[in-house]
Design goal:
The chain has eight helices and seven strands; from the N terminus they run ββββααβββαααααα. The chain is an alpha/beta fold.
């Protein structure tokens, strides 16, 4: 990655421009080529926007970014998040918003990129969507031990409090990941099933973490789904506090 560094009083600070190449982002495949190129610093948020991003989108995302729980912003800036928007109703990956990266690599090589679609930006969900996506960045920088301990708590909570058959997730999106994991638990033993189960469990834990934080920060998020999950959310927030020292809430000054 090459960059033009900004100097203030002889001190170098964040570069005003970053040029991200294919070499920096091995996760970039043919349909994601647009996520390489020139990214410009938006000083109020510290985020780097694709040079084509309209000013209105930079402003809106930066404003929302400054409302996020501090640990989410810290994770995003630490990992060097870049951002782009699309006029299409969905992202290149087919969602309303998405964050891409090489999650299995060391932090310095994850090179995450956030894409937000028109469907996300032009509605009330732009803030909870940003919370959800930045939660992936927070999740990526937690230790394996903390994540395992958190996942253990999730599983115990389901088994002791709800029972798998009656378990209602905080959103349909999270429920689909839970159901996928449970399907594999009940599936007959076959080659590779154990590792598929583990992957599904980790996926559910991660996506339900993102959805829970989004709901904790923005209580009206997906309220139309009419799920009664106050107890689950409370228990989950306790688990986040215990294992990640994380207590999600929007920053008071910006609410
Ligand atoms: Zn997600």
């Amino acid at each position: 990655m090459s960059s033009n560094t900004v100097y203030v009083g002889g001190e170098s600070i964040a570069p005003a421009v970053r040029n991200v190449t294919w070499t920096d982002r091995p996760w970039v495949r043919r349909q994601y080529q647009q996520f390489c190129g020139r990214f410009e610093l938006y000083e109020t948020s510290g985020l780097y926007f694709d040079a084509q991003t309209p000013e209105h989108d930079r402003q809106l995302i930066s404003l929302n970014f400054l409302k996020l729980p501090t640990p989410l912003c810290k994770a995003a800036l630490y990992l060097g998040l870049t951002v782009s928007t699309t006029k299409n109703p969905s992202t290149a990956s087919g969602n309303h918003s998405a964050v891409y990266g090489d999650w299995e690599r060391p932090h310095a090589q994850i090179s995450p990129h956030l894409e937000m679609s028109a469907a996300s930006l032009n509605s009330a969900v732009s803030l909870p969507h940003l919370v959800h996506e930045c939660c992936h960045l927070f999740w990526a920088v937690q230790s394996k031990a903390a994540k395992l301990a958190y996942i253990q708590r999730l599983v115990v909570l389901v088994e002791e409090r709800f029972g798998a058959a009656n378990f209602v997730e905080v959103s349909k999106y999270a429920q689909d990941y839970f159901d996928e994991w449970r399907k594999l638990i009940d599936a007959p033993p076959e080659f590779g099933i154990a590792s598929r189960r583990i992957r599904a469990l980790e996926k559910w834990a991660m996506e339900s973490f993102c959805e829970s934080v989004a709901k904790a920060c923005c209580p009206s998020y997906k309220e139309g789904e009419m799920r009664s999950t106050e107890y689950l959310l409370e228990a989950r927030l306790l688990a986040m506090k215990a294992e990640f020292h994380f207590e999600p809430a929007l920053r008071a000054a910006s609410q």
